[in-house]
Design goal:
The relative contact order is 0.09. By secondary structure, the chain is of the alpha/beta class. A six-stranded parallel sheet has the order 3-2-1-4-5-6. The chain contains 18 helices and six strands.
């Protein structure tokens, strides 16, 4: 039997972790995987999450994977420092079991500084998967017999998730983070009333599902939707000043209730350091629409208009978006314009007019 051991802080576990495990398992024909969460890795400062919360998220991430398990040796250790050598030495396994130990490419540089590395390299086969644009320290690879798996992997990191730059992790883990208000959630909530926050979560969950069913990155849809209304409750005068400064050509042509989409994009970029232009674009035009909408922008626009807490039966429009985000978006856009006309609400502005012209040629 081949067993792959993988240690880390998992704060939190994400799809990058799961991806490299899957690639290693395929390449090495691994029979079972054992995750070893660290209690307090000396080279990292853990976030405010508890050990129990990190374990909960690991359990959610590996749910349904019968050959995955968790080793609690380091979590239960009273040692000030948990060296990998000691953990492996005490790991209970069958003598006929082949042990592989997966490490990150960044650890190859310092492998010669690991505690009892000479002994450790004889106890397990050390494995590492290629990281894009990372230079290998060949002396350590050769000296300790490291097996390199040459496959491109995600650059996703736990820190990028904690900092709200990337939410590429299992949906169950995302839900846990939201429910327990971990990492970025308290900062997010500072900008919103409870009613606005509940609307935002509903939009984010719907955007995730639409994207998932249409083979579009669901974590990007979730992130964009979480930020789409982040500027909604900024004082009106501040919104007006921002639009006057940066979007003067639209200042007199937009209902002031629409200003928040530009403010939200600015907060996403400047406060939360979002650099993905597709995400920023989806936030920027979620209220008005525009010409040349990206798939992500269409999804966020639709989810915002038809999320279930809106107070009307949007089930048919939701199903239309599930079936085909593009056709669903056009149906949502048409329904929204018809609603605004029926309720005698002003909707015409340069952005919405260009959106209608691009996607609803036959609208009468």
């Amino acid at each position: 039997m081949k067993t792959l051991l993988f240690g880390g802080s998992f704060d939190p576990i994400h799809n990058g972790h799961l991806q490299i495990l899957e690639k290693a398992c395929t390449h090495l024909q691994i029979d079972r995987v054992v995750l070893i969460p660290a209690r307090a890795p000396r080279w990292k400062k853990l976030s405010s999450t508890s050990d129990e919360q990190r374990i909960d998220m690991i359990k959610l991430a590996i749910e349904g994977k019968s050959n995955y398990s968790i080793c609690y040796d380091e979590m239960n250790s009273s040692d000030e420092i948990n060296y990998t050598y000691n953990t492996i030495s005490h790991y209970n396994h069958d003598e006929r079991e082949e042990l592989y130990f997966l490490i990150g490419y960044d650890q190859l540089d310092v492998l010669d500084k690991w505690y009892e590395i000479d002994k450790l390299s004889k106890m397990v086969k050390i494995v590492s998967i290629a990281r894009p644009n990372y230079q290998i320290v060949s002396k350590n690879v050769e000296k300790y017999g490291v097996l390199l798996i040459d496959e491109e992997i995600s650059s996703m990191s736990s820190s990028s998730l904690r900092q709200f730059n990337n939410l590429d992790c299992p949906k169950k883990v995302l839900d846990y983070i939201i429910e327990n208000e971990l990492y970025f959630v308290p900062t997010l909530k500072e900008y919103m009333s409870s009613k606005r926050y509940n609307h935002t979560l509903s939009v984010a969950n719907l955007a995730y599902e639409i994207a998932l069913k249409n083979n579009i990155n669901p974590s990007k849809a979730f992130l964009a939707a979480l930020l789409h209304d982040i500027g909604k409750e900024i004082p009106q005068k501040e919104q007006e000043n921002y639009v006057k400064e940066y979007f003067l050509n639209l200042y007199d042509h937009l209902n002031k209730a629409l200003y928040h989409q530009f403010v939200s994009e600015a907060i996403a970029r400047d406060r939360f350091k979002i650099q993905d232009e597709e995400i920023l674009n989806a936030i920027k035009f979620h209220a008005t629409g525009c010409s040349n909408m990206t798939p992500l922008a269409m999804i966020v626009y639709s989810a915002d208009k038809i999320e279930p807490t809106r107070g009307y039966d949007s089930s048919k429009l939701i199903e239309a978006c599930y079936q085909d985000y593009y056709q669903g978006f056009k149906a949502v856009l048409k329904a929204n314009i018809e609603f605004l006309e029926e309720t005698h609400k002003e909707y015409q502005n340069p952005l919405t007019n260009s959106c209608i012209a691009s996607y609803l040629e036959n609208l009468k």
